[in-house]
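Cross-check.
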Amino acid sequence: MNRSFRVEYYNPRVREDIECWPVDLLARCDELLDLLEDHGPLLGAPHYQAMGGGLFELRPRGRSGFGRAFYCFCNRRVITVVHAFVRKTQKTPKRELLIARERLKNVKRHG
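Predicted model, tokenized:
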């Protein structure tokens, strides 16, 4: 099946961070990334949340907790995952959001 979108990573470390997640979160994240490749911005809640300024938060959930993967849409058909982490608090930590926003700026600046 041809996918409507293609997922890329800001750098190899972002994918490595996701691969270190507990196996249930990793599997769910990969499922949501597949759905994102198929549906793009039409994926819908509760799988993602818009964070403003073109940044989105993919929200995989599993028995072991909650993962977060920040991404943006580039060049109409490319999705770039800019940052990922396992959430340990109720709210997304500001530090994690700052990292994602800084990387988003770099992606927008350099295409």
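The chain is about 40% helix and 30% strand. Residues 23-39 form the longest helix (17 residues). Passed to J.P. for a second look.
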